[in-house]
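Handoff note, outgoing to incoming analyst
You'll be picking up this chain. Sequence as last confirmed:
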Amino acid sequence: MIETGNKTVVVVNAMVAPLLAGRVPEWVDLRAFSSTEELHELAPQAEIGWFDLYKVAAMAGAIGAATRLRWLNSIYAGVDSFPLDVLAARGVTLTNGTGINAITIAEYVVMGMLTMAKGYAEVVRAQDRQEWLIDSPGKQELCGSRALILGAGEIGGRVARMLEAFEVEIATVRRRPAPGCIGPQEWRARLAEFDWVIIAVPATADTAGLIGAAEIAAMKPGAALVNVARGSVIDQDALIAALNSGHLGGAFLDVCTPEPLPPGHALWTTRNAHVTMHLSGRAQSRMFARAADRFLTNLDRWHRGEPVAPQVDLTAGY
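Most recent structure output, in case you need it:
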């Protein structure tokens, strides 16, 4: 939307402000917050906001107070913790971080698959013990294996392209029909065909509990599961039982329920469970730079009255 007269107040986190300083257009009045308290003071002034906080409840409170807000940006891809109903009722446009972390998360998926295939966790433990192994604890090759990817977005697409280089046979599930993809009603009947099930779906009411006890039981014996979506997508108790029984060969979990996973939780010591503490998106140095560049591009689009991207469907939740 084209602004006239006074400058537009844009409120951003102080972590990203240095990447925007000197680069924002003249019509922008850039204000930065470095604490939750400062955000709550600035939020009511914001017409455009980038309110990201680690504590999402505090961020949601600031969004509630931002009654002048017209466009909210976030580096987070998952927006299940945002008050989407409030934003929808006020007619606020929401852009998220879809694609910003896709490269590193896709690399994490491949790392997890190789870690499980080659038993690399046991190699690291042997080094810690200063023990020279005479055989590999893992002997699986990715080449010739089959992977089912649930979610055909930026992350799922990148995972598919990376795995093609390893000669993995790929099948992708997406909500809307597309050539070469499996539909949402078909994949469950085919779970036993795959050595790997990779979950990269958005966190919505529809995907909560997507992988339950029945789906886990239907998976190929010895298959492995990789989750870079949300912990809520999986029935965690059923997963733990399947790992302990040996029905599943492994699980690489960048996400879990709850987060942080408390000391003493069964997942820490579950057989062949690899818990990576939601680090996949942080395993890079360019996240904020990429997000800042996209935000600046969107500022120009906003000023010209053009659509900003990627926009969240506030009804669908992604």
